[in-house]
Amino acid sequence: PAAALLAAAALAGTATSVVTWLVRGAGHPLTAASVEVLPVFAAAEMTRSTAPRVIVLRGDGDLVRYTLLRDPAGPRLGDADVFANVHGAAEGRLAKAVQDAAAGQADAVPALAGLGVSMLIVPGPTAHAVPGLAGVDGLDQVPATGAVVWRSRLPTGELVILPPTVAADVRSGADPPASAAAHPLPAGPGRARTTVPAGPAGRLLVLAEPVSRHWTATFAGHRLTPTRAYGWAQAWRLPAGSGRLDVGRSGDHRTGWLVLQLVAVCLLLVLALPTRRRATEELS
Question: What is the number of H-type helices and E-type strands within the chain?
């Protein structure tokens, strides 16, 4: 009985870990230590309901390296593989915005707002290696220890509503102007369930994610017409009035792959169970 209880406990712990990794992913399989990349207030900024993002810059001579962070915990194992798949116009607009910001050009601020970025951080020993940020009109320096932090004056987040006055320009590929008065909505990474305030027709709902046919949005129970914003971002035409908004992603077949993995794991567990060979007697 003691051996059976010990084996059951070992199998239960292993099964729990396997199922957790299948559903949520392995966050830190190699180490449990966390590296504090962001100042405390910057990490708190990213936990706001509008899910703003942060760019970490590191100067290396004439070269400026950057990382777009969506999680206040900082980079995680596998992020490079995921974000490396974001090519095309979105990747080019991000690189151009960082380049303009490092060069001290004010045009970088609206582009960063379109990307959902609210802060630029230069940490550690390279804190003063990107001096061009000090000349960007629209960025305010925030006191911090061990880093130089710049906060954008423009409201931004994962999901925003743009007024009709700028909707046409944004759909044609332009960045939102500094006077756009974007209204951020509560949202998570690539999803939102919230109530849209009343407003005129012609507004534009913009999700700071690359355009894809898998994104869906419904307003007051009706499916919204998709379009493109800034030349790369997913957007929808928003009708007048207020109503319940649901934004999500479908058709990625993730659930099917999880079920297939679970079946494979169960099959492996069955094959790994010890078997008892029955002894046979030969009758003479």
Answer: 7, 14
